[in-house]
Every structure is written in C-alpha cells, then in structure tokens.
Amino acid sequence: MRTRILGARVIDPSSGLDQVADLYVEGGKLSAIGQAPAGFEADQTLDAQGLIAAPGLVDLSVALREPGYSRKGSIASETLAAAAGGVTSLCCPPITKPVLDTSAVAELILDRAREAGHTKVFPIGALSKGLDGEQLAELVALRDAGCVAFGNGLNNFRNARTLRRALEYAATFDLTVIFHSQDHDLAEGGLAHEGATASFLGLSGIPETAETVALARDLLLVEQSGVRAHFSQLTSARGAQLIADAQARGLPVTADVALYQLILTDEALIDFSSLYHVQPPLRTRADHEGLREAVKSGVISAISSHHQPHERDAKLAPFGETEPGMSGVQLLLPLAMTLVQDGLLDLPTLLARLSSGPAEALRLPAGKLQVGGAADILLFDPLASTVAGDSWHSKGRNSPFLGHCLPAQVRYTLVDGHVSFKA
Q1: Considering the chain, what is the average pLDDT of its residues?
Q2: pTM for the whole thing?
Q3: What is the DSSP letter of 394?
Q4: What distance in Å separates the CA atoms of residue 132 and residue 231, rounded to the nearest whole number?
Q5: CB under 8 Å to 291, separation ≥6 — which residues?
Q6: How far apart are alpha carbons 260 and 268 in whole angstroms?
Q7: Quick one: pLDDT band at residue 383, thresholds 50, 70, 90?
C-alpha cells in the first residue's frame, strides 16, 4: 500500500522538524518527506490540510487486562482505544493473571496484539516471580520473548538486599528496570493523599514520604548498581526534585507522570467519587504545579495515560472499597492538548513528551518520523474538539472526563503505514 499524505503541518520533535509538507508511505515505511520519491504512485491519498502530522504517540503504561481480567478489558478493545487516542506504540505492565513472568505469557500477549493489529505492544516483564518480591524472574528469557523492561509495580521487594541483587543482575545484561516508588509500610491502608482533603473527608492518608523515602532509596541503589532506571507514576514535587538531582549527578534515570496528575489534585475527591480513586493518589496543588514544571523542564520526559480499565461494578462500592485506576488511553491526545491550551507547553514540546521522550526512556523503536523508519503516524485536527465518551472503545468507562469537551481530535492513526483508526 502506497499512501500520500497531503499538506499537513509535520512536527517531529526528535529532529526539530516543523513545516508544512507532504508525506509518502510505502511498504510500511516513511519513504519521503516533502518531495515524492521517483516513480511513486499512490494507492490512497489522505487530505491533511489543516491537520498536524506527528509521530504516533508512545504510552508507557496501558493495562490490557489480558490474560486473566477479560471482564475489565481485552487486548483487542484496549489497543483499539489506544489507536483512537493517537497511540501507535504502548507498553503493558506485568499485572496479569498469570503474572507476566514467563515467556509463554509474553508470547500470548504479543500474538493477540498482532492479531488485533491496532497498535504495537511492548510488554513489561515482572522483575520478580509472581511479583512477590522474593525470587528474580527469568529476565533474559523474558527479554528474548519480547519484554523491553522489567518492573514490580507497586509490589515492594521483601528487602533491599534482594532488590539490590536484582538491579545488579539487570545491569549485567543492560536491562531497564521500571520503579513505582512507594513504600508499602508508609502507604498501607491509605486511600488518598495525607493532607487537608483526606482529613476533611475522613479518608486514611498516604503521606508524600511514601514516595520520597522509597524514591531516595531506589536512586541510591541505582547509583550503586549502575542499572538503567525509569521511574514511573511520580506524584510529588519533591519526588520530581529528587529525579532532577539524580540526573544532575549523571545517573541514567528517566521519569514519567500520569497525565491525570497534571490535570487533577486531591481536591477532586471532595464528593467521594470513586472515579478519582487512583494509586498512587492524587496529591496537592503544590505537587501538581511541581510536576507540571518538571514536565516543562524535561526532568520528566514522558507523559503516560496509566490506563487501567475497570468493569462498572469495580467503581460502585463506597470509595474505600472500590478498585483504583482510571481508563484514559483513548483520551491521551485530547487531554494532553489541555496543557497547550493552558499555556504550559508549546505543541512541539507536548508531542516530545508523548512520543520521542517515552520512546527514548525505554529505548523503543518508535516516537519519530524518520525517512526509512516505520510509518507510525498520527494525524489530528488541533482546532476541532473531542467529546469524551463518544465512540468509546475501551471496555472501561471509569473516567471522570466522560462528557467533557476536549481540544483537538484524532483523525487518523497509522501503524506501519496501515490506517488502524479513522475518525
């Protein structure tokens, strides 16, 4: 299939390209930008006048819920939702049933993702067997099966010595480890950020130190072991500062933030809506501002959806008895565009945090528009709007943004030159 994309404003953050140009796609690759290759005859033409052409978005945390939790979502449904949000490459966490700690589970996920054909899927393998923090998983076998990084989610290792050994082993094979830094003992039983809102509502709190104490320890172990590390789901301004200090010291660390942390604060919990029940929790306005500044400066180089779809019943109980998490991947581009609307980021910087930044953090072959590279392309209208919830593809409708009118609209998502989503 040969495709010609006419008249788009082409923005590629990785190269600094920002100009109106035509794109030419052949054999799943981007064959030219600007001038048509010799003898090129298009099988289809996409009129992109007034549209932005950008690298397909890269989301570092999308729970596909398969295998084991099909009532919440499936690889087919959640990758289609991702494509509708402008995502062409995504990473899925190891929290499946069975846990993603064997090659067989990784291969099952990759096979079903290829069958669905909506996005490219890069599995995150479990760092420990069963995510129990006791025995190291078969990391090299998982890498060979397609896992691009390894993490234990919010499940802590039983002791720092075992974690240290795991990091040293990962460093030996140049593997990337993903940290979700939250101290289990400090966070245990908590439902919301420990502060004025939680006190007013009578909810048990999770202090900021649950993140910063664990983060400080993890950074010291990273420094000692020399492992490549990515810190996921930062929630506090002090946590972002710890990452900035580590980067200034030359540590090979990157970080991401959940998009909803850049938009919401713990004040959203005031009516006890379980749609705002997330782990780690929403924090204060000061933390919210600190995270936004870290994204602006590039200390946090990736914005992710941290998509966690749930069935309706999972959010119907009283706040403390509901399952945490938001469904958000289908709204990744429109929600992120509110950061441009607010004046926090310009459009090329936002696209960098959604494409080249996350791709570089985990060394993924994605996130750039490069002649000869994969034709993973997002075409969107920056002047149109999206009504969240219309044409919804995720099985999980657990989003507080449903019904909101959001800026921009995804028109086409192309994966290897194939149109995987069209509005």
Answers
A1: 97
A2: 0.97
A3: S
A4: 19
A5: 234, 235, 236, 237, 240, 257, 261, 262, 300
A6: 11
A7: very high
